[in-house]
Amino acid sequence: MSTEDTGDDWAAAMAEQAIEEAQAVELDELTDESQVFPADEAVKFDTIMDIPVTISMEVGRSFISIRNLLQLNQGSVVELDRIAGEPLDVMVNGTLIAHGEVVVVNDKFGIRLTDVISQTERIKKLK
């Protein structure tokens, strides 16, 4: 594939993204009326609701030697373990919770969740 072909692919992808402009929407507060907690359980649950967590989106990973790391400079390209178009990993405190895709809304990057990992699957990965 020539550099010219790669440029055409990139231009086509950017044009497609411009067509599929994401719309920002207000989300309702998540509530589940089907589960009613006893008063003491609700108080326990409320105490953890304001604990901050770190959320990060991972595009991919690469393992390189320190020698190669020290040779990196502006314009260097580091190959990742994923192919273009593959979903990003959404991590909370280092634990995979979802997969998503990059979106641009009002010139800001965001992520659209495409697959949320179930609680059962997350527990299995801990063991």
UniProtKB/TrEMBL annotation:
It comes from Shewanella benthica KT99. Keywords: Bacterial flagellum, Cell membrane, Cell projection, Chemotaxis, Cilium, Flagellar rotation, Flagellum, Membrane. Transmembrane segments: none annotated. GO terms for biological process: bacterial-type flagellum-dependent cell motility; chemotaxis. FliN is one of three proteins (FliG, FliN, FliM) that form the rotor-mounted switch complex (C ring), located at the base of the basal body. This complex interacts with the CheY and CheZ chemotaxis proteins, in addition to contacting components of the motor that determine the direction of flagellar rotation. It is found in: Cell membrane; Bacterial flagellum basal body. Signal peptide: none annotated. It is a peripheral membrane protein. It comes from the Bacteria. One of its GO terms (cellular component) is plasma membrane. This is Flagellar motor switch protein FliN.
